[in-house]
Amino acid sequence: MLIFSVFKTLTDQTVTVELKNDLSITGVLKSVDQFLNIRLDSIKVLDEARHPHMMAVKNCFIRGSVVRYVQLPAAAVDTQLLEDATRREAANQTKK
Amino acid sequence: MDDDSPPPPPASPPPPPSGPSGAPGSPTDFLKGVVGKKVVVRLTSGVDYRGILSCLDGYMNIALEQTEEHVNGRVTNRYGDAFIRGNNVLYISAAEPL
Amino acid sequence: MDGVSQGIQEPFDLVRLSLNERVFVKLRGDRQLTGVLHAYDGHMNLILSDVEETIMIVEPLDGASDVPSTVKVAKRNMEMLFVRGDGVILVSPPSRT
């Protein structure tokens, strides 16, 4: 749930999603769900020459399970807040 | 490529390492017995980790101390502490008498 | 057991104690990362900053090579990175020794 919340705070930010098939897509994060499925707008594929079939695609839905990484805008992430939230969630998990 | 990554574990907290009973000779009994002992953890990739088993949970997530990574019989890395994600574990073997 | 294991009841404690520390992460696909850990969850999804990724690429042996397989290493850096947990094999905190 914690990571889901983080992604929600990053909506309308530009992120780069790297898939497990090595395709990297940069775009504006429009929405995310609990499975970390991701909707991106105004997308641009890195290395378009290798992925010509993606050239006409302007927006996309990415299934969470095929994601390897998401590069986030560092300025939009409060690391102290993240650590506190992570400790809080960890404490809740062990209590249950 | 990263062919078949297994589905992520359920979002609930990891259950405790042992079931309610832990009858003598059961897997649970074995796992209780090897905590704090030297073990070999083999991953499905064939890589071995030798170290002292600090603890483990119901997903077979493992914490090891003084860990050596062995690939093809050679030491390829050392870690003071290591967390191993349970889905990668093939087996845990005792490396000293129990 | 020695001092390092004090206060570790479950494996995730090891990861929790590494928050705001530089960790080493071994991933599927011959990749490894080092970065400062800021968040994780029960799937081992991670958020790291100041990340260096190292990719080991085993070159397919072409006719000219006398060594059976040469390993090429590619590195890159990323400021802030989410890592999906299903690719994680191992996480190691900075060694305290």
TrEMBL record, chain A:
This is LSM complex subunit LSm2. InterPro entries: LSM_dom_sf, Sm, Sm_dom_euk/arc, U6_snRNA_Lsm2. The keyword Nucleus applies. PROSITE patterns: SM. Residues 2-76 form the Sm domain. GO terms for biological process: mRNA splicing, via spliceosome. Pfam families: LSM. It comes from the Eukaryota.
Automatic annotation (TrEMBL), chain B:
Residues 20-30 have a biased composition (Low complexity). Residues 1-30 are annotated as: Disordered. It is found in: Cytoplasm; Nucleus. It comes from the Eukaryota. Residues 26-98 form the Sm domain. GO terms for cellular component: nucleolus; P-body; sno(s)RNA-containing ribonucleoprotein complex; spliceosomal complex; U4/U6 x U5 tri-snRNP complex; U6 snRNP. The keyword Cytoplasm applies. It holds the Pfam family LSM. Residues 1-19 have a biased composition (Pro residues). GO terms for molecular function: RNA binding. PANTHER family: SMALL NUCLEAR RIBONUCLEOPROTEIN F SNRNP-F (PTHR11021), U6 SNRNA-ASSOCIATED SM-LIKE PROTEIN LSM6 (PTHR11021:SF1). Component of LSm protein complexes, which are involved in RNA processing and may function in a chaperone-like manner, facilitating the efficient association of RNA processing factors with their substrates. Component of the cytoplasmic LSM1-LSM7 complex, which is thought to be involved in mRNA degradation by activating the decapping step in the 5'-to-3' mRNA decay pathway. Component of the nuclear LSM2-LSM8 complex, which is involved in splicing of nuclear mRNAs. Component of the heptameric LSM1-LSM7 complex, which consists of LSM1, LSM2, LSM3, LSM4, LSM5, LSM6 and LSM7. Component of the heptameric LSM2-LSM8 complex, which consists of LSM2, LSM3, LSM4, LSM5, LSM6, LSM7 and LSM8. The LSm subunits form a seven-membered ring structure with a doughnut shape. This is U6 snRNA-associated Sm-like protein LSm6.
Automatic annotation (TrEMBL), chain C:
InterPro entries: Lsm3, LSM_dom_sf, Sm, Sm-like_LSM3, Sm_dom_euk/arc. One of its GO terms (molecular function) is RNA binding. The gene is LSM3. It comes from Sistotremastrum niveocremeum HHB9708. Belongs to the snRNP Sm proteins family. This is LSM complex subunit LSM3. SUPFAM superfamilies: Sm-like ribonucleoproteins. It is found in: Nucleus. Binds specifically to the 3'-terminal U-tract of U6 snRNA.
